[in-house]
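hey so u asked for the seq, here:
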Amino acid sequence: MSVAGLVPAMALAVRTGLSDLADEWLTLPSYFGANAGLKVTALVAGMLAGADSIDDMALLRHGGMKKLFAGTYAPSTLGSFLRAFTFGHVRQLDAVAARWLVGVAAVTPITAGIDEYALVDIDDTIKEVHGYQKQGSGYGYSGVRGLNALIGVVSTATAAPIIVGSRLRKGATGSPRGAGKFVGDVLATVGRLRSKTASGLVLLRADSAFYGHAVVAAAHRAGAKVSITARMDPAVKRTIATITENAWTTIQYTDAIRDETTGQWISSAEVAEVAFTAFSSRKKAERIEGRLVVRRIPELNGFEGDGQPTLFDTHRFHAFFTTSELDTVTADKTHRQHAIIEQINADLKDSALAHLPSGVFTANAAWLVLATIAFNLSRAIGTLAGTELGKARSGTIRRKLINIPARISTSARKIVLHLPEHWPWETGWKALFAGACGPPRTVTI
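ran it, structure tokens below
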């Protein structure tokens, strides 16, 4: 077999209840839904090994895979299973993913430090598709034909981001549509991952597309703080105009250097803050008090046709609304780190989300949820393999821990895996196997 890393990976998935949860929550028709747990784990296993389409699931049936795994279904069977999903079944699969994640977090350090500090990011991305037979595809804000995937992740001061929620939407859907309900679901999952006595900061970060009452109110109800880029509407512009010149603080930014004598940053970027009431046009009970943190950068781009230099400096302003108690400089730095979610989007598109394999919208929606489970499982096995791989991309985990060749032999009714000798990631693989299955026994020849 060429994917020996699936042995400890799927042992961890079964140990944390993935198959049992799928059997419990999924209520597909009996013809398609029989052995739902095995089919879900088979799809996740294929994604871990590099499958990005239904046909690629044939890799589960190569070599001696049937000696090691139950549920090595044909691609056609798994395709029929996915096409049987309705919207309700996709939401059931969401419930499976959320509850399974709690089980994984209990046995691996993928959410270490979440009780003290949790950063929750939401964003959407367009997954390009081709042809008119993809249900729900359309031209969204990116200008390409595709489907819209809404993703929510959580990270901590010591743990890399994991995916805590996902939704597949029509390609022409605006970013904020349904985001309030999505934020509520994501923060509920984060609440399950934290202990009942946790009192640390939970901060929701998002870009200006999600700056709306529904999102901020959902975070407020869940007890989370927000850090959301504000659109430059008249109210925000008026508030920025009230900031005095001596209120600006120089920050570390692109090309900034630190003065060794004074310890101050020499930079063209500055930040300031001012009290701000969001959504002041709504009734008083729906208004949300916070502050506007503003970053300004000198406008250095000249305009074609300028006849003479400007008489005074002009700036570009970037403002975000926050209800956290972080100081101004820290709040700005923390907000800029929201871009980390783009790495998750890129990772998914480089792995199982390289394609949306079906013409049926709900099948693709289920595929997205399964892709997030596979991503979280790869993150979990990376943490078990050691610090070096705890924050690695899925492709790196696949190359170093999953796609490992092994020869299968049978002796005295026992299956023996003959792994390579002196390969670079042997130590990490053994640590993974020990964490998922217990210490491996060495055969002496």
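The mean pLDDT is 90. The chain is about 35% helix and 20% strand.
lmk if thats what u needed
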